[in-house]
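To assess whether ligand presence alters the predicted conformation, the chain was also submitted together with fe (ii) ion. Input:
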Amino acid sequence: MKIRQLFDYDTWTYTYLLWDEETMEAAVIDSVIEQVDRDMQHIEELGLKVKYLLETHIHADHITGAGPLRKKTAAEIVVHKNSGSECADILAEEGDTFKIGSQTITVMHTPGHTNNDITYRIDGAVFTGDTLLVRDCGRTDFQLGSNEDMYHSLTQRLFTLPEDTMVFPAHDYKGFTQSTIGEEKSFNVRAGSGKSFEDFSTIMDNLNLPNPKRIDISVPGNLKCGNLDD
Ligand code: FE2
């Protein structure tokens, strides 16, 4: 499995291309609407046959490029069923699998940032959306987020994976690009090194973050898969 990490400067978002080298079947995780031309150029140059456009959740900080990419590639859009998305082709849930070539992508429902977070797991790697970030985790104070769910997703689901599993987040604000489960178990500032739920909750309840600037247009735009004219 090949993994390519792409970055959107304006929203600090990572988009990932995954592909199977034998068949060139591919998936795109968390595209950004302003970067559709960049992504299509890469897809065409590399000769990828995109089968799936995978969303880790309904984003509040940017609009997905999945709808425009579907028009260009005929791939299927995957979003968690809790999103209530009416534009997705597949409403996924825990344990669902998707094949690209001989590779299997497995859905883990890891809520906490929202109620519809998916971690996509492939052999040796997880794409953790806004659930697990490098040394950090997503906020829990809107979009049906929950400290309880986040703590459970981090400590009982993700931190129980093999320690050498590579971690690829949906965002980074400090220049980090990836991590491992073992590193995050030890060094994650919010939930690592055996932090109790009470400690975690105190941190999360005192972040005092402003709402994302684009939340009012991003959430409705994402519920239309980024097809803003439809
Ligand atoms: Fe998010």
